[in-house]
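Sample A.
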Amino acid sequence: MKIFWVWNDSNYEENEFENESLNIEETTTDFEEWQVAVDIIENPSEIIIISPIAWVDFEDIDLSIKEWVLIISWERKKPLELYLNWSVLRVSEIFFGHFKRTIILPENLDFDNIKAVLDKSILVVKIPKLKFSWKTIEIENIDNSLI
């Protein structure tokens, strides 16, 4: 019975449930960058950006802002110690390599007070909105003789 898709040197092929040696180079991708998945939430006081990040240490995440563009990037490396202990990779759905996302932000944000936390493999970036004070301006009645 053929049930698994297994990476082959030339293409994907269906293989019998066999003992094949795992070649780590065959399981890596040729893509330069993967796009970071995000949710963006807006409420009256802030913008919140949420992104799942697994198998990455927080010091390896690059979070930068230039003008009104937020850039989130990191590299997820394959933990070879896990993969080398197994003889056959039956399913390969985890993406490894460079991840990056560029988000254009509105100008009404307080970029000096951005906060970012990594909790349970979820990156949460909070950017407060600028607070403009409202002031009522009294309109004076100008006598026509002054114009």
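Sample B, a different protein:
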Amino acid sequence: MKVRFTGTLVSALLLSLCLAALIPAALRNVLTWKQLHLEMGPSVRVDNFLIPFGFLHLGIAMVGLIVLWTGYIKRKRWAWFVMLIILLCSSFASSVLPVLLQIRAQGYQWSMLLDLLRALPSGGLGHCLAITPSCCNDAVGIDCMDALILIGLVNFLLMLVALLFPVKAFFWKPAKN
């Protein structure tokens, strides 16, 4: 049997890799199931919402993989729209939107995002959003801590390119002679 590498197959493979890359982080969140609260400091305890978010991301990844290998590979339009919804509502909302909101809230210029991208070759992959105690009013807020933020941005961009690459196969019918 000869495998024909079409744009849809290449796109499905890239999207599968991107969805599979979400699974380890989701499993790390699920494995916190024994902790009812997360300790964020000496006097701050936050409910552990990592468990439901972990299961949510596992479910989205599994639904995405099932859609990819049942409908998307057969060029069904509904499958393309499901993958678009997964991209916008899950990947964009969890990796890109928090970065953009943090940049806006901190009064940063767009050059700040470019500074983050310039840090990639030098190995300085820090500056990620996380829920941490606020220093001013003892409330929980959004702050920055060391983590790998660019992985989420690159994953989103790769998924976007992989989704838009075969768009012609889904929406334009070939001319019949």
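Observation for Sample B: The beta strands are 37-39, 45-47, 128-133, 140-145.
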